[in-house]
Design a protein that fits this description.
elongated
């Protein structure tokens, strides 16, 4: 069994990349459409072009961004596969438990109403 601190989980680089707000903002921009590195730097005037390039490097290492060359431009694309992996591993598993718990709560909350309305109809 591996330690939770080990780097053997393939999702660790993805979570590290998503932990930074600028990287999440870059992913939001790429979700809208593929963009060159220059376009991303123009859309994020509060950080330098070098910082955008460094964030793109981290996002590429986490496989969240892929790029292609168009002449001298580098066109960046969002790769949704790692996000789908996080959804499958973390969100979906907990979502099913919560949906079941909420359905049980709904039934409990509605049960007295059904009993009360049955009593009203009987009288």
């Amino acid at each position: 069994m591996t330690s939770p601190e080990s780097d053997t989980d393939p999702l660790d680089p993805i979570f590290r990349a998503l932990a930074n707000g600028w990287r999440r903002r870059i992913l939001d921009l790429l979700r809208e459409s593929p963009r060159s590195t220059g376009d991303l730097a123009d859309a994020l005037p509060d950080i330098s072009r070098f910082a955008v390039m460094q964030h793109l490097k981290v996002l590429e290492e986490a496989r969240l961004v892929v790029h292609e060359r168009d002449g001298r431009q580098r066109i960046n694309h969002l790769n949704p596969v790692p996000i789908q992996m996080i959804y499958e591993r973390w969100v979906k598993a907990y979502e099913e438990n919560w949906a079941s718990a909420l359905l049980g709560l709904k039934r409990q909350l509605e049960a007295p109403r059904l009993d009360a309305s049955a009593d009203e109809e009987a009288s």
